[in-house]
Amino acid sequence: MERFLIKSPNAKPSSKVEEPPPKKSKKDYDKKYDTLKRKRAFQDAWLKEFPWLRVDDKAAGTCKICRQFPMLADQKCGLYIGQIISRKDTLYAHEKSAKHASCKLKSDREKLKNTNTKFEGDLEKTVQKYNEGQTDKFKMLFHTAFGVAKNRKPFSDYEYICSIQKKNGLDLGSDHLNRKACVEFVKSISESLHDTLVSKLKQAKFYTVMSDSSTDSSIVDQECVLVRFVDPDTKSPVTSIASIEALHTPDANGVFSAIKNGLKTIDIDIENRDSKPVLACINMDGASVNMGAKNGVAKKISDCVNHKVIVTHCVAHRLELGVLDAAKTESYLEQFESTIKRIYRFYSPSPKRRAHLCSISEVLDKDLIMYSDIKSIRWVSSKRRAVNAVVQDYEATVMHLEQVIETSKKTDEKSQAKKIHSDITQVKFVKYMHLMLDILRHVTSVSQLFQLNDLLIFEIQEAVNTLYTHLHAMTVTPGESLQEFYDTFDTDARLYKGVKLNGPLPKVFAEDNDIIRFLRNISQDILHRFSNLSDVPIVNFSVFDFRLWPNSLDDLSVYGNADIVSLVQCYENILSEEDKANIPSEWQQLKVRLSMQKSGHPLAVLTQILQSNEKTFVHIATLIEMLFAISPSTAECERSFSSMNLIKTPSRSSMSQANLLNQMRIVMSGPSLEEFDPTDSVLYWLGSSKGSRHLTHKPKSKKPVEPSSSSANIDIEPEQQDTQLINDTRAKLKEKLAKDQCSVQ
Question: What is the pTM (predicted TM-score) of this model?
Answer without folding.
Answer: 0.78
